[in-house]
Amino acid sequence: MLKILCITPVKHLQGVYEELKKQGTVHYYPDITKNNLKKILKKKDYNCLFVNPNRQGFIINSEILSGTKIRVINTCSTGTNHLDLDYCKENKITVLSLKNDLKLIKQLPSTSELSFGLMISLIRKINESFDSVKNFNWDYTKYIGRQLSGLTVCVIGYGRLGKIFCKQLAGFNVKIIVVDPYVKKCKYRKMKLLDALPIVDILVLHVHVTKETKRMINNKTLRLMKNNSFIINTSRGELVDEKAIVGRLKQKKLQGYATDVISDEFSNINKSLLIKESKKLPILITPHIGGMTEEGQQKAFMHAVHKLRKFK
Questions:
Q1: What pLDDT, on a 0 to 100 scale, did the predictor assign at position 46?
Q2: For the purposes of burial, counting CB atoms within 10 Å of the CB of 87, is it exposed (0-12), middle (13-18) or buried (19 or more)?
Q3: Most buried in the list 64, 169, 203, 280, measured by CB within 10 Å?
């Protein structure tokens, strides 16, 4: 029988918590801290964790899992960089994610929609101008942005979200470039990353973190980009060298950076260079809300719960 510790909010979703209880005994701690999680897992005999990276502020690793009875970790996400997969494999802990549930995730465009929204907000300086209006200023001259029509947008990663994002661009009269060495057929212009960077106005990241993609946007690649270009990242913070991003922004070699993810989000966000510099630089940050829509959560979380049926 499953003894489930749920450490992500689900009670706001219709029927999800009730369905989770059908899979076993459930204890609900959506706001649990890392230290408390360690303590409770050592004292209690939970064998299943139900999690989501958007809520966690820490990585579930050997420090947390060692000496526990956890045998299944169910994450309601496609990404798994909030889990120590090597430790789980070595200790025969089954990790369930949505990464390969293609039929489901094709119905989840929320992250791609956010990416589009961040792009428009960044290039049109929407947030900055609104902050000015809050102080009863009414001067547009500081907030003259860019027109999307006519710009060249490069999408790195032509998987589910990359494809959705390209479709969203239809009708905006933009030139689309796709960078993805694993895709053979594509209706848009395909290029290698280093060839594409010098000609793009907006770079959009839609890839998973791997050894190949980690810090793929770094000093070397940034130096190839136009001085008035923008970067949008709703994938993972580890895809970029944040120090290099900040440096290029300070030098005005990069026009703006918008992200839903930071490299520090599973440690201490108080140390985040991006958040500190966002007060002075054209940096737009949201707190990993990509998939966090009512519709997206409802489908994803319910699907994740049903994956536990075979462990009952």
A1: 96
A2: middle
A3: 203
pLDDT tens digits for 202-227? 999 999 989 999 999 999 999 999 99
Quick one: tokens of 178?
């796709």
Regarding beta strands 24-28 and 48-51, do their DSSP bridges make them parallel or antiparallel, or are they unpaired? Answer: unpaired
Helices (H), 71-230: 85-90, 102-105, 110-123, 126-134, 160-169, 193-196, 219-222
Could you give the angle at which helices 160-169 and 110-123 cross, rounded to 10 degrees?
Answer: 50
How many other C-beta atoms are found inside a 10 Å radius of the C-beta of residue 34? 16
Residues 6+ apart with CB under 8 A from 17: 6, 10, 11, 26, 28
DSSP H/E element including 306: helix 294-306
Phi, psi (degrees; rounded to nearest 5) at 116 = -65, -40
Look at residue 170 in the predicted model and tell me its pLDDT. Answer: 87
Strand ranges inside the chain, DSSP E: 2-6, 24-28, 48-51, 72-75, 94-96, 152-156, 175-179, 189-190, 202-205, 230-233, 256-259, 283-285
Can you give the pLDDT at residue 147? Answer: 97
Alpha carbon 100 to chain centroid, angstroms: 17
- For the CA atoms of 288, 291, 294, 297, the dihedral, rounded to the nearest 10 degrees, stands at -110
Q: What is the pTM of this model?
A: 0.88
Which element (helix H / strand E) includes 244?
helix 242-250
The stretches in the chain having pLDDT less than 50 are none
